[in-house]
Amino acid sequence: MSEYPVHVYIYDLSRGFASQMSLAFLGKHIEGVWHTGIVAYGREWYYGGGGIESCNPCGTVLGRPNRIEDLGNTQIPEEMFMDYLQEMAESKYRPESYHILDNNCNCFSADVALFLTGTGIPSYVIDLPREFLATPLGQMVKPLLDHMGYAPGGGHKAFYPENCGGGTSNLPLPSSSTSASTSSSTSTSSSSTAKPVAKPDSVFFHDYDVDASVSLITSTPADLHLSEAEIKLMKEIHEYSKENEHELHWSLGATHITLLLRLLNHGGRQSLAILDVLQCLVVRQEIRCLLDGINDRQFIKYVHSLTEDRPARIKTLKVLSNFAASEAGSKRLFSKTEWQHGSDKTSNAKVVVALTVESLLRDDLDFAQPAATLVFNMAINHSSLAQLEDEILELSSAILHMLGSCSTDSQTTKCCIQSLLRFISIDSQVLVPLINAHDIDWNAFGEKDASIKPFVLSLNFKLQDAHLQQTTTG
Asked: How confident is the model at residue 70 (pLDDT cuts 50, 70, 90)?
């Protein structure tokens, strides 16, 4: 099977001006105003106000990139890649769909990178619009930016027949983490430092109401045996949840989290409110790290003993999903280390998988959505999936059953297909026959929603590739 190198070329449109002057103009330092293109199959592909375009690497008026990041190799044939681009050119990345902040060249590069390699582009590129809009100047000029377009000159429409083939480049493709030299005299040494490549973004649930939940908890202190000191801790938790994560100069401690876990296991009508607060808190990385540093068996034991309380089960799934949005959190939730529960031995993985599978098999979207998101967050964040072969098989079987029998929304479907793609890379010999046995019409998902098509194309390719390998071996 042929492999093709994939790189992202990163250009600073400000030519170093942003790095030098952003602090004075914006009140915060911004390293560059980034434009990106994906280099694959000997061509550079990018998106702008003219739609999807291509050129020889470094063939636009921008010249040589400031940085080049190695995204790895892809086994996807060029013909399939062209089909993918055609689909995107007719849907999400039409010329009139361009938006300089919300649907730009970097959004395109991130989607293409994910399709080809399963990884993303550097997070500092994707985060730039959010950082800029967080400044007073950003808010002031946003109405103007909403009507602006941009496309670097020098490229051609990607789907003219004469431009469909792979070209050749005079610029040698760099090895991993090698940065290209730049002709800009304003470039600094930091501009040539390779940055970590981001994986697909985790999915969070933000449907919580901490104001109402904390009010309910603190209004009935006797029911929960809350002391004055604990009421103060709850107020601090409330204050923390309302602060902007990027402006906080303090954090919660283990005593705050321990209090929430004690109250959760106390039971009663306040349990749903405690879950609501936890769902909010674990969105923040520092809280996930904090939870990882203390004994969270109290929460897992709560999960293990969940009743058929529908709202509590759904809310618990959302807490687990948000918690699994980091490597440490995912590994903790899916730990196979056994512990004693009454007369039986169990593990975090057994408890979480049991709840997730049961939720996926309910044929109920209210349960399927958080359950599928939990699986997705685990799939992209857990770095040792090979140790979870049995769990992956259970989860995949449940996902396939749900997709074949339950009407799902687009986000849930994306989470399911991306999880399957990740799991196939771990154990294709077991997963591919299992997927084929369910005889699901994957193309129907893509026809229903164009944003799902890239993942369907990638899945079909993997299934076809596995079939070819099996035929060849046979």
From this structure: very high
Q: How many helices (H) and strands (E) does the chain have?
A: 22, 8
Percent of the chain with pLDDT over 70: 77
- From 35, 238, 256, 304, the catalytic residue: 35
Q: SS3 of 153, please?
A: coil
334-339-344-348 Cα dihedral, nearest 10 degrees: -10
Single out the catalytic residue among 7, 55, 58, 105: 105
Question: Which ranges in 254-388 belong to alpha helices (H)?
Answer: 254-266, 271-281, 285-293, 297-304, 310-323, 327-333, 348-360, 365-381
In whole angstroms, what is the distance from residue 155 CA to residue 266 CA? 64
Backbone region of residue 232 per phi and psi (left: phi > 0; alpha: psi in -120 to 50; beta: other values): alpha
The CA distances from residue 330 to 21, 235, 292, 370, 385, in Å, are 40, 29, 10, 15, 10
Residue 35 is a catalytic residue: yes
**Global pTM value:** 0.61
Which pair of structure tokens corresponds to residue 165? 């083939």
At 346, the pLDDT band (50, 70, 90 cuts) reads very high
d(C-alpha 200, C-alpha 131), whole Å: 19
pLDDT digits (tens, 9 = 90+) for 260-296: 888 887 766 788 999 999 999 988 877 776 665 565 5
58 is catalytic: no
